[in-house]
Amino acid sequence: MTSATAARRAASAAVLAALLATGCGGGGGKPSGEPRSTSAARHPAARAPSGQATSGTFNSSDIGWIQLMIAMDDQAVLLLDLVPGHSSDAGVEKWAKPVATAYRAELARLRKLLARAGVPDTNPHEGHDMPGMVTEDELHTIERAKGTAFDALFLAAMREHLDQAAKVAHSERSAGADPATRKLAVSVERTSHTWRARLP
User: Fold this and answer.
1) Please, which residues bridge with residue 41 across strands?
2) What's a Pfam family this protein contains (predicted)?
């Protein structure tokens, strides 16, 4: 590895660590969110020391990114599932259906990677109000909306989610160590930009 490559990886690792920490220490995230929950298990996950391999080719950036994306995607799927019966925009419904299907496939890939790393499928982001994370409070608010009001709230939440997903994926593909995890990060970054550009 060249010194320039090493420097880029170190910088990306620092960016990813900062993004993972945002909202996790009580000081970041969205200003008015409430504690959230996901369909993931409710216990803190084991984390590898910074820069140390957890299992095989995984390092702490890989594990942190996988866990963050599972937490983010779990909530995004719940949001996407609200579209039928709430949206009044055929374009929103047409956009949301394949995205929800793709997210479920992405979650399966993320959980397979987590299992291969030997890390329990738990949620270290329980109760955290983070950029790109759709909180339970937000879900309840959006669920109560109908028609154009729902569409506006839905699109704003998905826009934030996709922007943040692309950002952390960009850092992971540089800072991560596991080839399969980095490959998925490349896919997540690309598809996040694509879906963001195609938002109605």
Assistant:
1) 122
2) DUF305
d(CA 124, CA 77): 19
As averages over each run of 10 residues, the pLDDT of the chain (200 residues) reads 43 47 41 34 36 66 95 95 96 97 97 94 67 88 97 97 97 95 97 96
CATH code assigned at 66: 1.20.1260.10
User: Other CB atoms closer than 10 Å to residue 165's CB: what's the count?
Assistant: 26
CB atoms within 10 A of CB 105: 9
Enclosing H/E stretch for 15 = helix 3-21
Which amino acid type is present at position 9? R
Query: How many other CB atoms are found less than 10 A from the CB of residue 129?
Result: 23
Which residues lie across from 122 on neighbouring strands? 41
Of the candidates 190, 92, 189, 88, the one whose C-alpha atom is nearest the C-alpha of residue 147 is 88
Q: How far apart are CA 114 and CA 108, in angstroms?
A: 10
What's the predicted TM-score (pTM) here?
0.75
Q: Provide the domain count of the chain.
A: 1
The range of the structural domain enclosing residue 31 comes to: 3-197
Backbone angles phi, psi at 70, to 5 degrees: -60, -45
**Helices 60-80 & 3-21 angle (0-180, nearest 10):** 50
Q: Which residue has the tokens 């020391």?
A: 49
Which stretches within 50-178 are classed as H helix?
60-80, 90-117, 136-144, 147-175
